[in-house]
């Protein structure tokens, strides 16, 4: 197991040839690994640091979690905006009084708008204003300098 997913190219290892189903499963595993490693493994690294003794809590030190807590309001607002846009997209394509072609067209336009807005937020705002860095789940102890590296 690597990051909570199975091995890649298992169909090639078993049968000696690649299959479409195996390639699709590798894609799912790769996306799952990316998500787990970037958005949810920071807490796991912190627990390892506590377990092996790399970090010892001290009441005199400031909490290493204060930086991550400062950005939670921005994250909630951004997620609420994207969720609202998704609900509007679905509701536009679900109106029963319109013909099917119009509903499909409205749904495609709304979905494209949702992807465009999300892409803009990730690429432009994430690159220039560091919104993307706020979503990444970094280990609080090692990334904030709380773990001092031992020098020989």
From TrEMBL:
Query: Can you tell me which residues the record assigns to a coiled coil?
Result: none
GO BP term, pick one: phosphatidylinositol dephosphorylation
Keywords recorded for this protein, A-Z: Membrane, Transmembrane, Transmembrane helix
TM annotation in the entry: 73-92, 104-123
Keyword check for Hydrolase, yes or no: no
The superkingdom listed in its UniProt entry is Eukaryota
An example Gene Ontology molecular-function term = phosphatidylinositol-4-phosphate phosphatase activity
A Gene Ontology cellular component where this protein is annotated is: endoplasmic reticulum
This chain's protein is named Phosphatidylinositide phosphatase SAC1
